[in-house]
Write a structure and sequence with these properties.
It is a single chain. The protein is α/β, with parallel strands linked by helices. It has a single domain, classed as FAD/NAD(P)-binding domain. The chain contains eleven helices and 22 strands. The strands form four sheets. Strands 8-7-16-17-18-15-19-22 form an eight-stranded mixed β-sheet, with helices on both faces. A six-stranded mixed β-sheet has the order 10-4-3-14-21-20. About 45% of the residues are buried. The N terminus is likely disordered.
Protein backbone atom coordinates (compact mmCIF):
# COMPACT_ATOMS: atom_id res chain seq x y z
CA UNK A 1 0.00 0.00 0.00
CA UNK A 2 1.20 3.52 -0.69
CA UNK A 3 0.90 6.56 1.59
CA UNK A 4 1.21 10.26 0.80
CA UNK A 5 0.83 13.38 2.96
CA UNK A 6 -2.14 15.68 2.30
CA UNK A 7 -2.31 19.43 2.96
CA UNK A 8 -4.25 18.72 6.18
CA UNK A 9 -1.42 16.54 7.46
CA UNK A 10 -3.67 13.51 7.31
CA UNK A 11 -2.02 10.46 5.75
CA UNK A 12 -4.44 8.71 3.40
CA UNK A 13 -3.56 5.20 2.49
CA UNK A 14 -4.20 3.68 -0.88
CA UNK A 15 -4.89 0.12 -1.86
CA UNK A 16 -6.33 -1.59 -4.91
CA UNK A 17 -8.98 -3.22 -2.75
CA UNK A 18 -10.13 -2.65 0.85
CA UNK A 19 -11.60 -5.71 2.56
CA UNK A 20 -13.62 -4.81 5.67
CA UNK A 21 -13.96 -7.46 8.39
CA UNK A 22 -11.58 -10.21 9.48
CA UNK A 23 -13.91 -13.14 9.99
CA UNK A 24 -13.05 -16.21 7.93
CA UNK A 25 -14.66 -14.77 4.77
CA UNK A 26 -12.73 -11.50 5.03
CA UNK A 27 -9.37 -13.10 5.75
CA UNK A 28 -9.91 -15.68 2.98
CA UNK A 29 -10.81 -12.87 0.57
CA UNK A 30 -7.82 -10.71 1.52
CA UNK A 31 -5.41 -13.65 1.18
CA UNK A 32 -6.78 -14.64 -2.21
CA UNK A 33 -6.50 -11.07 -3.54
CA UNK A 34 -3.01 -10.42 -2.18
CA UNK A 35 -1.75 -13.72 -3.56
CA UNK A 36 -3.06 -12.71 -6.97
CA UNK A 37 -1.21 -9.43 -7.04
CA UNK A 38 -3.76 -6.92 -5.64
CA UNK A 39 -2.52 -4.46 -3.03
CA UNK A 40 -5.01 -5.30 -0.31
CA UNK A 41 -5.95 -3.50 2.91
CA UNK A 42 -7.73 -5.60 5.51
CA UNK A 43 -9.68 -3.28 7.79
CA UNK A 44 -10.28 -5.20 10.96
CA UNK A 45 -10.22 -4.45 14.67
CA UNK A 46 -8.42 -6.96 16.89
CA UNK A 47 -10.78 -9.80 17.82
CA UNK A 48 -12.32 -9.17 21.26
CA UNK A 49 -13.45 -12.69 22.20
CA UNK A 50 -12.67 -16.24 21.12
CA UNK A 51 -15.26 -17.85 18.84
CA UNK A 52 -16.03 -21.25 20.42
CA UNK A 53 -18.15 -22.41 17.46
CA UNK A 54 -16.86 -24.95 15.00
CA UNK A 55 -17.16 -25.01 11.23
CA UNK A 56 -17.47 -28.01 8.97
CA UNK A 57 -15.46 -27.01 5.91
CA UNK A 58 -16.92 -29.05 3.07
CA UNK A 59 -14.77 -30.63 0.40
CA UNK A 60 -15.11 -27.76 -2.10
CA UNK A 61 -13.93 -25.24 0.51
CA UNK A 62 -11.02 -27.53 1.37
CA UNK A 63 -10.10 -27.63 -2.33
CA UNK A 64 -10.03 -23.84 -2.39
CA UNK A 65 -7.87 -23.70 0.75
CA UNK A 66 -5.53 -26.22 -0.88
CA UNK A 67 -5.30 -24.06 -4.02
CA UNK A 68 -4.38 -21.08 -1.84
CA UNK A 69 -1.74 -23.18 -0.02
CA UNK A 70 -3.58 -22.64 3.27
CA UNK A 71 -4.79 -26.16 3.86
CA UNK A 72 -1.45 -27.51 5.18
CA UNK A 73 -1.62 -25.15 8.15
CA UNK A 74 -5.35 -25.69 8.81
CA UNK A 75 -5.55 -29.48 8.36
CA UNK A 76 -3.78 -30.45 11.62
CA UNK A 77 -6.62 -28.84 13.62
CA UNK A 78 -9.45 -30.65 11.83
CA UNK A 79 -11.41 -33.88 12.14
CA UNK A 80 -12.71 -35.61 8.98
CA UNK A 81 -16.44 -36.12 8.41
CA UNK A 82 -16.51 -39.51 6.76
CA UNK A 83 -20.14 -40.44 7.36
CA UNK A 84 -23.32 -38.43 7.77
CA UNK A 85 -26.23 -39.98 9.59
CA UNK A 86 -29.76 -38.52 9.62
CA UNK A 87 -32.04 -39.89 12.32
CA UNK A 88 -35.74 -39.07 12.44
CA UNK A 89 -36.38 -38.32 16.12
CA UNK A 90 -39.61 -36.41 15.56
CA UNK A 91 -41.66 -39.13 17.27
CA UNK A 92 -44.44 -38.32 14.79
CA UNK A 93 -46.89 -40.66 13.10
CA UNK A 94 -44.96 -40.50 9.83
CA UNK A 95 -41.26 -41.05 10.39
CA UNK A 96 -38.43 -41.45 7.91
CA UNK A 97 -35.98 -44.35 8.11
CA UNK A 98 -32.42 -43.61 9.27
CA UNK A 99 -30.18 -42.58 6.37
CA UNK A 100 -26.37 -42.84 6.35
CA UNK A 101 -24.26 -41.24 3.64
CA UNK A 102 -20.64 -42.33 3.17
CA UNK A 103 -18.01 -40.08 1.58
CA UNK A 104 -16.48 -43.17 -0.01
CA UNK A 105 -19.57 -43.37 -2.29
CA UNK A 106 -18.22 -40.20 -3.95
CA UNK A 107 -14.65 -41.57 -3.89
CA UNK A 108 -13.76 -38.96 -1.28
CA UNK A 109 -11.91 -39.57 1.99
CA UNK A 110 -14.35 -37.20 3.74
CA UNK A 111 -17.29 -34.88 2.99
CA UNK A 112 -15.39 -32.21 4.83
CA UNK A 113 -13.41 -31.39 7.96
CA UNK A 114 -14.61 -29.85 11.21
CA UNK A 115 -12.50 -27.21 12.95
CA UNK A 116 -12.87 -24.85 15.90
CA UNK A 117 -13.37 -21.29 14.63
CA UNK A 118 -10.60 -20.08 16.99
CA UNK A 119 -8.11 -22.41 15.24
CA UNK A 120 -9.35 -21.49 11.76
CA UNK A 121 -9.26 -17.75 12.45
CA UNK A 122 -5.83 -17.90 14.10
CA UNK A 123 -4.30 -19.80 11.16
CA UNK A 124 -5.85 -17.39 8.64
CA UNK A 125 -4.67 -14.36 10.66
CA UNK A 126 -1.10 -15.73 10.76
CA UNK A 127 -1.18 -16.32 7.01
CA UNK A 128 -2.44 -12.72 6.50
CA UNK A 129 0.41 -11.36 8.64
CA UNK A 130 3.07 -12.85 6.37
CA UNK A 131 1.52 -11.81 3.05
CA UNK A 132 3.63 -9.06 1.41
CA UNK A 133 0.78 -7.34 -0.50
CA UNK A 134 -1.64 -7.45 2.43
CA UNK A 135 -1.73 -4.82 5.13
CA UNK A 136 -4.00 -5.28 8.13
CA UNK A 137 -5.26 -2.06 9.66
CA UNK A 138 -6.37 -2.52 13.26
CA UNK A 139 -9.44 -0.27 13.10
CA UNK A 140 -13.19 -0.33 12.42
CA UNK A 141 -14.84 1.12 9.38
CA UNK A 142 -16.74 4.25 10.47
CA UNK A 143 -17.89 5.57 7.10
CA UNK A 144 -17.57 4.74 3.42
CA UNK A 145 -18.16 7.00 0.45
CA UNK A 146 -18.42 5.54 -3.04
CA UNK A 147 -17.17 7.86 -5.82
CA UNK A 148 -16.78 7.83 -9.62
CA UNK A 149 -13.44 6.08 -9.71
CA UNK A 150 -13.02 4.68 -6.20
CA UNK A 151 -14.23 4.47 -2.61
CA UNK A 152 -13.04 6.42 0.42
CA UNK A 153 -13.13 4.72 3.80
CA UNK A 154 -12.92 6.56 7.14
CA UNK A 155 -11.60 4.35 9.92
CA UNK A 156 -11.96 4.52 13.70
CA UNK A 157 -8.24 5.31 14.18
CA UNK A 158 -8.55 8.45 12.05
CA UNK A 159 -7.09 6.82 8.93
CA UNK A 160 -8.53 7.62 5.53
CA UNK A 161 -8.19 4.86 3.00
CA UNK A 162 -8.93 4.97 -0.69
CA UNK A 163 -9.37 1.98 -2.96
CA UNK A 164 -10.91 1.12 -6.29
CA UNK A 165 -13.22 -1.43 -4.69
CA UNK A 166 -14.43 -2.13 -1.14
CA UNK A 167 -15.41 -5.63 -0.12
CA UNK A 168 -17.82 -5.96 2.79
CA UNK A 169 -16.93 -9.06 4.79
CA UNK A 170 -18.20 -7.36 7.92
CA UNK A 171 -20.92 -9.78 8.90
CA UNK A 172 -24.66 -9.57 9.25
CA UNK A 173 -24.76 -5.90 10.38
CA UNK A 174 -22.48 -4.89 7.51
CA UNK A 175 -21.56 -1.20 7.44
CA UNK A 176 -20.26 -1.58 3.87
CA UNK A 177 -23.65 -2.91 2.76
CA UNK A 178 -25.42 0.01 4.35
CA UNK A 179 -23.04 2.58 2.87
CA UNK A 180 -23.51 1.03 -0.57
CA UNK A 181 -27.28 1.45 -0.18
CA UNK A 182 -28.01 -2.27 -0.45
CA UNK A 183 -31.32 -3.29 1.13
CA UNK A 184 -31.91 -6.66 2.82
CA UNK A 185 -34.73 -9.12 3.45
CA UNK A 186 -34.55 -10.35 7.02
CA UNK A 187 -36.62 -12.90 8.95
CA UNK A 188 -36.69 -14.82 12.25
CA UNK A 189 -37.52 -18.41 13.18
CA UNK A 190 -39.20 -19.41 16.45
CA UNK A 191 -36.00 -21.26 17.43
CA UNK A 192 -32.70 -20.78 19.17
CA UNK A 193 -29.52 -22.87 18.87
CA UNK A 194 -27.62 -24.02 21.94
CA UNK A 195 -24.01 -24.44 20.82
CA UNK A 196 -21.18 -26.13 22.73
CA UNK A 197 -18.38 -28.68 22.52
CA UNK A 198 -18.25 -32.04 24.25
CA UNK A 199 -15.92 -34.82 25.22
CA UNK A 200 -17.37 -38.37 25.13
CA UNK A 201 -16.45 -41.94 26.06
CA UNK A 202 -17.30 -43.63 22.75
CA UNK A 203 -15.29 -42.67 19.62
CA UNK A 204 -17.29 -40.95 16.85
CA UNK A 205 -15.48 -42.83 14.05
CA UNK A 206 -15.91 -39.83 11.75
CA UNK A 207 -19.72 -39.90 12.01
CA UNK A 208 -21.66 -36.67 11.98
CA UNK A 209 -25.13 -37.38 13.42
CA UNK A 210 -28.15 -35.19 12.79
CA UNK A 211 -31.26 -36.02 14.84
CA UNK A 212 -34.35 -34.42 13.36
CA UNK A 213 -36.61 -33.37 16.23
CA UNK A 214 -39.96 -31.49 16.15
CA UNK A 215 -38.16 -28.30 17.32
CA UNK A 216 -35.25 -28.52 14.85
CA UNK A 217 -32.06 -30.52 14.31
CA UNK A 218 -29.79 -31.76 17.09
CA UNK A 219 -26.42 -32.22 15.39
CA UNK A 220 -23.19 -33.75 16.66
CA UNK A 221 -20.13 -33.15 14.48
CA UNK A 222 -16.73 -34.82 15.11
CA UNK A 223 -13.79 -32.86 16.46
CA UNK A 224 -10.29 -34.25 16.91
CA UNK A 225 -10.04 -37.13 19.41
CA UNK A 226 -13.09 -38.13 21.42
CA UNK A 227 -14.68 -34.72 21.08
CA UNK A 228 -17.65 -33.38 19.11
CA UNK A 229 -19.41 -30.08 18.64
CA UNK A 230 -23.14 -29.80 19.25
CA UNK A 231 -25.73 -27.53 17.67
CA UNK A 232 -29.05 -28.15 19.39
CA UNK A 233 -31.92 -26.20 17.81
CA UNK A 234 -34.74 -25.72 20.27
CA UNK A 235 -37.76 -23.60 21.11
CA UNK A 236 -36.20 -20.44 22.71
CA UNK A 237 -37.50 -21.01 26.27
CA UNK A 238 -36.20 -24.58 26.32
CA UNK A 239 -32.83 -23.48 24.88
CA UNK A 240 -32.51 -20.97 27.72
CA UNK A 241 -33.43 -23.62 30.31
CA UNK A 242 -30.76 -25.96 28.93
CA UNK A 243 -28.22 -23.13 28.75
CA UNK A 244 -28.72 -22.46 32.48
CA UNK A 245 -28.17 -26.07 33.62
CA UNK A 246 -24.99 -27.09 35.42
CA UNK A 247 -22.44 -29.05 33.34
CA UNK A 248 -23.33 -32.52 34.65
CA UNK A 249 -27.10 -32.16 34.26
CA UNK A 250 -26.70 -30.67 30.79
CA UNK A 251 -24.31 -33.46 29.74
CA UNK A 252 -26.88 -36.02 30.86
CA UNK A 253 -29.68 -34.33 28.89
CA UNK A 254 -27.47 -34.27 25.81
CA UNK A 255 -26.52 -37.92 26.21
CA UNK A 256 -30.21 -38.84 26.52
CA UNK A 257 -31.13 -36.82 23.41
CA UNK A 258 -28.28 -38.50 21.53
CA UNK A 259 -29.59 -41.93 22.55
CA UNK A 260 -26.14 -42.52 24.15
CA UNK A 261 -24.50 -43.15 20.74
CA UNK A 262 -21.34 -41.46 22.04
CA UNK A 263 -21.63 -42.79 25.59
CA UNK A 264 -21.08 -40.58 28.63
CA UNK A 265 -20.43 -36.92 27.87
CA UNK A 266 -18.70 -33.93 29.45
CA UNK A 267 -19.35 -30.32 28.47
CA UNK A 268 -16.19 -28.43 27.41
CA UNK A 269 -15.75 -24.67 27.64
CA UNK A 270 -18.59 -22.21 27.42
CA UNK A 271 -22.04 -22.57 25.85
CA UNK A 272 -23.55 -20.08 23.45
CA UNK A 273 -27.11 -19.29 22.37
CA UNK A 274 -27.89 -18.18 18.80
CA UNK A 275 -31.44 -17.01 17.98
CA UNK A 276 -32.23 -18.40 14.52
CA UNK A 277 -32.86 -16.03 11.66
CA UNK A 278 -32.05 -15.33 8.06
CA UNK A 279 -30.99 -12.42 5.91
CA UNK A 280 -30.43 -11.95 2.19
CA UNK A 281 -28.96 -8.82 0.62
CA UNK A 282 -31.03 -7.74 -2.42
CA UNK A 283 -27.82 -7.59 -4.44
CA UNK A 284 -24.27 -8.65 -3.61
CA UNK A 285 -22.65 -5.66 -5.31
CA UNK A 286 -23.37 -1.98 -5.95
CA UNK A 287 -21.62 1.39 -5.90
CA UNK A 288 -18.04 0.06 -5.93
CA UNK A 289 -18.81 -2.31 -3.09
CA UNK A 290 -19.15 -6.11 -3.15
CA UNK A 291 -20.34 -8.30 -0.29
CA UNK A 292 -19.10 -11.72 0.78
CA UNK A 293 -20.12 -14.11 3.58
CA UNK A 294 -22.69 -13.12 6.17
CA UNK A 295 -22.72 -9.52 4.92
CA UNK A 296 -24.56 -11.03 1.91
CA UNK A 297 -26.51 -13.94 3.42
CA UNK A 298 -27.31 -15.47 6.79
CA UNK A 299 -29.28 -18.62 7.52
CA UNK A 300 -29.67 -21.12 10.36
CA UNK A 301 -26.74 -23.39 11.26
CA UNK A 302 -28.27 -26.42 9.54
CA UNK A 303 -26.36 -28.65 7.12
CA UNK A 304 -23.00 -26.86 7.52
CA UNK A 305 -23.73 -24.42 4.71
CA UNK A 306 -23.09 -20.82 5.91
CA UNK A 307 -19.35 -20.33 5.64
CA UNK A 308 -19.08 -22.77 2.75
CA UNK A 309 -21.45 -20.51 0.82
CA UNK A 310 -19.37 -17.51 1.96
CA UNK A 311 -16.17 -19.09 0.66
CA UNK A 312 -17.87 -19.67 -2.70
CA UNK A 313 -18.55 -15.88 -2.77
CA UNK A 314 -14.85 -15.32 -2.07
CA UNK A 315 -13.67 -17.72 -4.78
CA UNK A 316 -16.16 -16.40 -7.37
CA UNK A 317 -15.36 -12.73 -6.68
CA UNK A 318 -11.62 -13.42 -6.80
CA UNK A 319 -12.04 -15.14 -10.16
CA UNK A 320 -14.08 -12.25 -11.61
CA UNK A 321 -11.62 -9.60 -10.38
CA UNK A 322 -8.56 -11.40 -11.72
CA UNK A 323 -10.29 -11.81 -15.11
CA UNK A 324 -11.34 -8.13 -15.15
CA UNK A 325 -7.77 -7.00 -14.45
CA UNK A 326 -6.45 -9.30 -17.20
CA UNK A 327 -8.86 -7.61 -19.66
CA UNK A 328 -7.63 -4.20 -18.47
CA UNK A 329 -11.00 -3.29 -16.94
CA UNK A 330 -11.71 -1.15 -13.88
CA UNK A 331 -12.22 -3.72 -11.07
CA UNK A 332 -14.96 -1.61 -9.47
CA UNK A 333 -16.89 -0.96 -12.69
CA UNK A 334 -20.66 -1.68 -12.76
CA UNK A 335 -20.15 -4.41 -15.39
CA UNK A 336 -17.70 -6.26 -13.12
CA UNK A 337 -20.03 -5.96 -10.12
CA UNK A 338 -22.96 -7.15 -12.26
CA UNK A 339 -20.96 -10.24 -13.27
CA UNK A 340 -20.44 -11.03 -9.59
CA UNK A 341 -24.16 -10.63 -8.87
CA UNK A 342 -25.05 -12.94 -11.80
CA UNK A 343 -22.53 -15.53 -10.65
CA UNK A 344 -23.74 -15.69 -7.07
CA UNK A 345 -27.51 -15.10 -7.06
CA UNK A 346 -28.67 -18.67 -8.00
CA UNK A 347 -26.40 -20.34 -5.41
CA UNK A 348 -27.44 -17.94 -2.63
CA UNK A 349 -31.16 -18.31 -3.39
CA UNK A 350 -31.06 -22.09 -3.71
CA UNK A 351 -29.07 -22.66 -0.47
CA UNK A 352 -31.19 -20.20 1.52
CA UNK A 353 -34.37 -21.86 0.23
CA UNK A 354 -33.13 -25.40 0.87
CA UNK A 355 -32.11 -24.66 4.47
CA UNK A 356 -35.39 -22.79 5.06
CA UNK A 357 -37.51 -25.66 3.67
CA UNK A 358 -35.63 -28.30 5.64
CA UNK A 359 -36.04 -26.35 8.85
CA UNK A 360 -39.73 -25.56 8.28
CA UNK A 361 -40.50 -29.16 7.28
CA UNK A 362 -39.34 -30.23 10.75
CA UNK A 363 -41.50 -27.63 12.47
CA UNK A 364 -44.60 -28.33 10.40
CA UNK A 365 -47.45 -30.25 12.04
CA UNK A 366 -49.07 -30.82 8.61
CA UNK A 367 -49.26 -34.49 7.67
CA UNK A 368 -48.64 -33.90 3.91
CA UNK A 369 -45.42 -32.02 4.73
CA UNK A 370 -44.27 -34.81 7.06
CA UNK A 371 -45.16 -37.38 4.40
CA UNK A 372 -43.12 -35.54 1.76
CA UNK A 373 -40.15 -35.27 4.12
CA UNK A 374 -40.39 -38.97 4.95
CA UNK A 375 -40.60 -40.00 1.28
CA UNK A 376 -37.68 -37.70 0.41
CA UNK A 377 -35.45 -39.24 3.07
CA UNK A 378 -36.62 -42.78 2.19
CA UNK A 379 -35.66 -42.23 -1.48
CA UNK A 380 -32.37 -40.58 -0.47
CA UNK A 381 -31.58 -43.74 1.47
CA UNK A 382 -32.56 -46.22 -1.24
CA UNK A 383 -31.90 -44.75 -4.71
CA UNK A 384 -28.14 -44.66 -5.44
CA UNK A 385 -28.13 -41.95 -8.18
CA UNK A 386 -30.29 -39.72 -5.97
CA UNK A 387 -28.00 -40.39 -3.00
CA UNK A 388 -24.95 -39.37 -5.00
CA UNK A 389 -26.67 -36.27 -6.40
CA UNK A 390 -27.72 -35.16 -2.89
CA UNK A 391 -24.25 -35.77 -1.47
CA UNK A 392 -22.53 -33.91 -4.31
CA UNK A 393 -24.95 -30.99 -4.23
CA UNK A 394 -24.73 -30.87 -0.41
CA UNK A 395 -21.00 -30.23 -0.72
CA UNK A 396 -21.44 -27.50 -3.35
CA UNK A 397 -23.69 -27.05 -6.40
CA UNK A 398 -21.96 -28.32 -9.53
CA UNK A 399 -23.16 -25.22 -11.44
CA UNK A 400 -21.66 -22.76 -8.94
CA UNK A 401 -18.20 -24.16 -8.31
CA UNK A 402 -15.59 -21.46 -8.95
CA UNK A 403 -12.27 -22.45 -10.51
CA UNK A 404 -10.36 -22.49 -7.20
CA UNK A 405 -12.85 -25.05 -5.89
CA UNK A 406 -12.11 -27.28 -8.88
CA UNK A 407 -8.36 -27.08 -8.29
CA UNK A 408 -7.90 -24.73 -11.28
CA UNK A 409 -5.67 -21.63 -11.08
CA UNK A 410 -7.13 -18.15 -11.67
CA UNK A 411 -4.41 -17.35 -14.19
C1 LIG B 1 -23.75 -22.24 15.67
C2 LIG B 1 -23.24 -22.04 14.27
C3 LIG B 1 -22.61 -23.10 13.62
C4 LIG B 1 -22.16 -22.94 12.32
N1 LIG B 1 -21.58 -24.00 11.68
C5 LIG B 1 -21.19 -23.86 10.40
C6 LIG B 1 -20.60 -24.96 9.68
O1 LIG B 1 -20.45 -26.05 10.22
N2 LIG B 1 -20.24 -24.78 8.39
C7 LIG B 1 -20.42 -23.56 7.76
O2 LIG B 1 -20.08 -23.44 6.58
N3 LIG B 1 -20.96 -22.51 8.42
C8 LIG B 1 -21.35 -22.62 9.70
N4 LIG B 1 -21.89 -21.56 10.36
C9 LIG B 1 -21.93 -20.26 9.69
C10 LIG B 1 -20.58 -19.55 9.82
O3 LIG B 1 -20.20 -19.51 11.18
C11 LIG B 1 -20.69 -18.15 9.26
O4 LIG B 1 -21.14 -18.24 7.93
C12 LIG B 1 -19.33 -17.47 9.28
O5 LIG B 1 -18.81 -17.34 10.57
C13 LIG B 1 -19.47 -16.09 8.67
O6 LIG B 1 -18.19 -15.57 8.51
P1 LIG B 1 -18.01 -14.09 7.98
O7 LIG B 1 -16.54 -13.88 7.88
O8 LIG B 1 -18.84 -13.86 6.78
O9 LIG B 1 -18.65 -13.17 9.13
P2 LIG B 1 -18.18 -12.96 10.62
O10 LIG B 1 -17.51 -14.16 11.15
O11 LIG B 1 -19.38 -12.42 11.35
O12 LIG B 1 -17.07 -11.83 10.54
C14 LIG B 1 -17.38 -10.49 10.34
C15 LIG B 1 -16.22 -9.67 10.89
O13 LIG B 1 -16.42 -8.30 10.54
C16 LIG B 1 -16.03 -7.50 11.62
N5 LIG B 1 -16.69 -6.20 11.50
C17 LIG B 1 -18.00 -5.92 11.69
N6 LIG B 1 -18.22 -4.62 11.49
C18 LIG B 1 -17.01 -4.07 11.17
C19 LIG B 1 -16.59 -2.74 10.86
N7 LIG B 1 -17.45 -1.70 10.86
N8 LIG B 1 -15.29 -2.54 10.59
C20 LIG B 1 -14.39 -3.57 10.57
N9 LIG B 1 -14.75 -4.83 10.86
C21 LIG B 1 -16.05 -5.07 11.17
C22 LIG B 1 -16.44 -8.30 12.85
O14 LIG B 1 -15.71 -7.89 13.98
C23 LIG B 1 -16.11 -9.72 12.40
O15 LIG B 1 -14.79 -10.06 12.77
C24 LIG B 1 -22.35 -21.70 11.67
C25 LIG B 1 -22.99 -20.63 12.31
C26 LIG B 1 -23.43 -20.80 13.62
C27 LIG B 1 -24.14 -19.65 14.30
Amino acid sequence: MTKRKTASGNTPRQADIAVVGAGPSGMGMALLLARHGFRTALVAPAVAAADDRTTALLESSVEMLRSLKLWERIAPHTAPLEHMRIIDATGRLIRAPEVVFDASELDLPAFGYNIRNTDLNRELAEACASEPLLERIDARLDALEPGESGVTLSLSDGTTLSARLAIGADGRRSAVREAAGIAVSEWRYPQCALVLNLEHDVPHHGHSSEFHTPTGPFTLVPLKGRQSSLVWVQEPGEAERLHALDDDTLALEIERRAASILGRMRVLGKRQLYPLGGLTARTVAANRCALVGEAAHVFPPIGAQGLNLGLRDVAALGEILVAARRRGEDIGAPSVLAAYERARRPDIISRTTAVDLLNRSLLSELLPVQLLRGIGLYLAGRVPPLRRLLMREGIAPLMARPRLMRGLPLG
